[in-house]
Amino acid sequence: MPPSATPGRKFDKQGSPLSRRKATFLFRCIGCGVLTPDAAQHFRCSQCGNLLEVTDPSWKSPGLNADALKSIWLERRCSNSPLDLSGVWRFRELLPTPESAEQVISLREGNTPLYELPQASRRTGVSRLYGKHQGMNPTGSFKDAGMTVAATFAREAGYRWVACASTGNTSASMAAYAARGGMCSLVLVPDGKISWSKLSQALDYGALTCQLRTDFDGCLRLLQELVQRAPVYQLNSINPFRLEGQKTLAIELLEQLNWRAPDHIIVPGGNLGNSSAIGKALLEMLELGLISRLPKLSVIQAEGANALVRTLREAGGKQLVSVQPETRATAIRIGNPASWEKAVKVIQATGGA
Amino acid sequence: MPPSATPGRKFDKQGSPLSRRKATFLFRCIGCGVLTPDAAQHFRCSQCGNLLEVTDPSWKSPGLNADALKSIWLERRCSNSPLDLSGVWRFRELLPTPESAEQVISLREGNTPLYELPQASRRTGVSRLYGKHQGMNPTGSFKDAGMTVAATFAREAGYRWVACASTGNTSASMAAYAARGGMCSLVLVPDGKISWSKLSQALDYGALTCQLRTDFDGCLRLLQELVQRAPVYQLNSINPFRLEGQKTLAIELLEQLNWRAPDHIIVPGGNLGNSSAIGKALLEMLELGLISRLPKLSVIQAEGANALVRTLREAGGKQLVSVQPETRATAIRIGNPASWEKAVKVIQATGGA
């Protein structure tokens, strides 16, 4: 029996108390804090123009304590239901959820391994060093964790087209989830300096791909104009649903560490959606009592694409210092990171760098 | 407490009855059937020269019934021990096991998703069609499932060097497991027509790589001479430990299908190690009562590298019909498949094609 056929238990076959949570959430502006039920097409605050994030007051419902969450998340590892097999939706109590479980577009993303790295540990002099292998996602990158959530909401909202600007990973991921969900996808690709192997994935999945004579930031600007004029859903990382899915990277990491927070989490930073998502997850896990202290969250950038580094050093994190990006690491070749304010906020909140 | 510190329970933290199984196994010649405890360096029968396979009489011990196995394998999905997190070692009752669990070199291989493929299903007219995404392995291919077992036994036997001939996937996998296990690795690469992105993985993991003016089959011949003269352990698919690990692809598949055997399993065939391994697993699962009937196992080859197809059609599977291989699918560009007899055996046993 599909979960949606059970009145009042819309999203969980297990019938646990957690499943009675209503799938309601709001968007909150990260600038002025205003709450709104609708993020429109541009995911920006109608008052101040800043980015929106998902906020979910239902966490604070009485049934949701840390021990209950840990236990239900563990139990789901033995389940064969598609939602539980996903390393994202397994943690659905901390995610916005669609009306019905059948709306979810999943390719069994997440569930990526955490490796202890003894050789790197010896060389760096760090006593315990771990790496989380995000390449073990369906399309080969961490983008899948966010894409399953954002693509689900795109389809639930009735969109037939989704689109992104991309240097590679995002387009591969978006095209896969769009194909899985029966939607069409449009990829805007900058001129040169992109990952051809990643782009060929997007082409394989049937994405309509346009290469433009501009860089990533130019593609993103054009996309934002496009989504105002046509019924196309934007799946770049300013889409707050993507960040919600990417939060599960951090939740899964903490579960793998038996909920003992590490001293420090270090992530590479491009458009800064991932660091923002991980930071948001850490703050939420602390609030829920899933962890007892915050790890530092730090972001590494290439010297030639160090907008966040300069934003923090030269402007104290108060305004974006854009750069003309130049690095061989195509996935972080971004000079004007969309989520810079979210990233500054979480770096400062966790004491990272 | 490490498992090896518990006398009589060498390989399982759970302390279940299954863990008392002794890690003993023999090799059986697939030609003359002779049993031997030692496979030497060439993995061939000292009597008739045919390939060896691992045989494990301990399956037939009284504690090992199908229901107990299914239940312990399911329980392990909730465990965080490295062995249980591996989609290969989780099924260790059907594998040869080293003396101590600490000897295992694992990168959390296996655990790959099974996708229902509705679009391909509609186009082909097959009512239910599934694909198992073996790319979601640590180095991106199914080779990892076998490599964790073979690399473990290489190190346990005291080897400091491992080697393979490879068109790509095997070298990437071998180099990763060798690096993880603190061993050196040597890759013999044919001239052209190989996967550069795969080879660059091997180089990243520190493999010594030699390109030879010959094809894959020539590299394999040279390797077999080399291992007779130097203390180098051969990790090509004639290594029977690799096939043991690859058996778990089929075991995991059947678990994902709730132990209901599908009508047909179709795999691509190059050196034919994978089809041999899957076939061996199917026969063993039937013998143990894990499944009640055999699915057909069929092998697909490229038209330009169809040695097995011709072996079955032109020689009735009785002798190998070699071909001069030519296909853009580099991973199956093999004209003289080492495991052809094993593959013929399982195709005929399951009624495949």
Short descriptors:
homodimer; 353 residues; alpha/beta; four-stranded parallel sheet; three-stranded antiparallel sheet; 11 helices; 35% helix; 13% strand; disordered N terminus
Textual characterization of the structure:
2 copies of one chain form a homodimer. With 353 residues, chain A is of the alpha/beta class. Chain A is 35% helix and 13% strand. The first copy, chain A, is built from 11 helices and 11 strands. The first copy, chain A, has helices at residues 66-75, 82-85, 118-124, 143-156, 169-180, 196-204, 216-229, 240-256, 273-288, 307-315, 340-350, and strands spanning 26-29, 35-36, 52-55, 114-116, 130-132, 161-165, 184-190, 208-212, 232-234, 264-268, 296-300. A 4-stranded parallel beta sheet of chain A has the order 8-7-6-9, sandwiched between helices. In chain A, strand 7, helix 6 (196-204) and strand 8 form a beta-alpha-beta unit. In chain A, helix 4 packs across helix 5 (169-180). Chain A is globular. The N and C termini of chain A lie far apart (49 Å). Mean pLDDT of chain A is 87; it is low at 1-23. The A-B interface holds A 74-75, 77-78, 80, 85, 107-108, 111, 113, 115, 119, 133, 135-138, 140, 179, 197, 256, 258 and B 74-75, 77-78, 80, 85, 107-108, 111, 113, 115, 119, 133, 135-138, 140, 179, 197, 256, 258.
